[in-house]
Amino acid sequence: MAKTISVKDDQTGKAWKFPVLEGTAGPDVVDIRKFYAETDMFTYDPGFTSTGSCESKITFIDGDKGILMHRGYPIEDLAEKCNFEEVAYLLLFGELPTEKQYKQFERDITYHTMLHEQFHNFYSGFRRDGHPMAIMCGVVGALSAFYHDSLDINNPDHRRISTYRLIAKMPTIAAWAYKYSLGQPFIYPRNDLTYAENFLYMMFATPCEDYEVNPVLAKAMDRILILHADHEQNASTSTVRLAGSSGANPFACIAAGIASLWGPAHGGANEAVLTMLREIGDKKRIPEFVKRAKDKNDNFRLMGFGHRVYKNYDPRARIMSRTCAEVLNELKIKNNPLLDIAMELERIALEDDYFIEKKLYPNVDFYSGIIFQAMGIPVTMFTALFALARTTGWVAQWQEMIEDPQQKIGRPRQLYTGQTKRKFVPMKSRK
Ligand code: SDX
Q1: How much is the pTM?
Q2: pLDDT surpasses 90 at 148
Q3: Which helix (H) or strand (E) holds 427?
Q4: Which of 307, 313, 352, 355 has the most ligand 1 atoms within 8 A of CB, as the residue to mutate?
C-alpha cells in the first residue's frame, strides 16, 4: 500500500492526504506538488532546510553518520582508488569506466583543454589584482559567445560537447587567472599530462625553463579535486539547476554556480579559513576567537566549521587532513604555524560544549587552504580551485536535471508580509 501523510487544518477540521515517496537511501519525502492546488496554502522553508528540490542518483550524503557516496561508491574508496578523471566519468555516466571507456574519455577531455585565442582579450580587460572568481564568472559566461554550434540543451550531442568543454577548460581558465595576476605569460595545456598535473603545470611553469610537476603534489591535487567534485544539492549546485531549469545554456549556468560558490558561507570558506587563521595568529588567541564564535551578538563564525547537512565529521575533512600531512611532509615543511593553530583550534572546538551541542565539526574547507598555501597557491585562488573541481558535479547535475521528465522551470512562491492594497498619493501631496 502506497505510503501517505495526512495534513489537517485545526481551525476548519479539513484534512488532506499526500503521497510519501521512498528513495533507495536517506529520508522519505512528502510529495507536495499538489499541496497548493489542494490546500490553497504554500509550504514555507527559507534556506530549504527540509525541502527536496529534485530526484537525483548522483550523490548521497548521510549527515548524521558522516557518509558521502557518489553513485553508491563511498568517497573514501574513490579518493584512495581512483583518479579525478575516473570520478568525473562516474558522476557523468553513473558507472566507473572500463579501461577503453576511460581512455576515450581522457582523450575527449584532453583535446578540449585549450581556450580560443581571443580569450586573452577577456583577461586583459580585468585589473591585475581582480579576484580570480570575478575572472572565472566572466570568462566562463563568455564561453557561450564562442560555441554557437552547441547551445541547444535539448540536443544530447550539444550537451555532451558542452560538458566536455566546461570540464576540460576550467583548469586552463583558473590557471590563466593566476598567471594574469602575476603578469606572467599564459602557459598552454599539455596533452601528455593528467588533469591535475596539467593544472599545476599551467599554474607554475614558465616559458623560460622546463617544469616538472611534483608527482606527490599532483596526486594530492588529484585527490582534492575528487573531494570537491560534487556534493548533492548544495547552494551552488542548486543555483546551476535553477538557472538550467529556464533553459539557459550550460556555460551561463556554470557561471551562475561559480558566483554562488564564491560566498564565504559556501566555497569561499576555504579562503576565509586562511584569513581567520592568520587573524588568530597565535594559539594563545584561540580562546578569544572561540568565545567570539559563540557570542550571539558577534557575527564572527569559525570558518571551516559547521555544515547544513553534516552533523558529524565531514568525511572529506578527514581525507584532507591526511593529505595536508602528506603535502607538508613532501615539501619538508616541518612546522607550519597556521597548521598548528588549525589543529589546536580543532581540538578545542571539538571539546567545547557549544560546538558539541550544535554538532559543529570541521568541514571540507578547514584544511584545504593550508594545503594550497603550502603548494604555493595564493589565497585568492582557493575558491577558484573549488570551482574548477565542482564544475564536474555541476555539469553532471545539470545534465540530470535536463534529462529528468519531472523537471520544469523552478519558480518558488513566498509568504508575503508587505503592504496590502492602498490609495496612490501624488508626489505634491506626499508629506
Ligand atoms: C561548503 O552544502 C554543502 O554541501 C556545501 C559544501 C559543498 O561541498 O558544496 O559542503 C561546501 O560550503 C562547506 C561549508 C563552508 N562554510 C563555512 O565553513 C562557513 C562557516 N560555517 C557556517 O557559516 C555554517 O555552519 C554553514 C553556513 C556552513 C551552515 O549553516 P546552517 O546550516 O544554516 O546552520 P546555522 O547557520 O543555522 O547554524 C546552526 C547554529 C547557529 O546557532 P543558533 O542560531 O542555533 O544559536 O550553529 C551556529 C549558528 O550560529 N554555527 C556556528 C558555525 N556554524 C553554525 N557558530 C560558530 N561557528 C560556525 N562556523
Answers
A1: 0.95
A2: no
A3: none
A4: 307
